[in-house]
Amino acid sequence: MQRLGELIRYHRKRSALTQAELAELAGVGKNLVHELEKGRHNVRLDKLLPVLQVLNITLDFSSPLRESFLREYPDAHR
Fold it and tell me: Cα 73 to chain center, whole Å?
């Protein structure tokens, strides 16, 4: 989580946002943004995703079975 926190901080600063502004735009508390940037390890995904969305950061999950999964479930979100 430390690298993710560093990435969030970098994007926030490049976007010229304060922690409070980012929190308001994401609909989360300022303390959460602070904790994320410090590398907090136990953050709920439903709190993390809005912060990432505001900063235009995407998560990419990889799996050795991803391609076979997508063939078996073609309607799965890509």
Answer: 26
